Amino acid sequence: MQPIDVVNYIILLISEFFRFAGMAVLGLGLGWLIVDLFRKITAWQGQISLFLGLAGLIIGLSVFTGIGAMGAFAIGLGVAIFLWGMPRKPKEEKKKSDK
User: 65 — phi, psi (to 5°)?
Assistant: First the structure.
């Protein structure tokens, strides 16, 4: 193994890490955007177009990206849906007791 091969492996490892992190951030951002738009759009046609667009994006990513990048995107999308898509419990105000 020559020194240039070691350098190439290190560069490849760094690039794969940035691809993984970038796809996770992309999934998080697109997940937030989809959840936010899904709540704002009241017409069913808009909601269906969001769903079909996301499904088409996932199909395209599964065909044209690697397994690690697709997994990172799915993790980011899942985290976004759980963070911003789940209903929140209403905050209860603390009752002040009169003494």
Answer: -120, 170
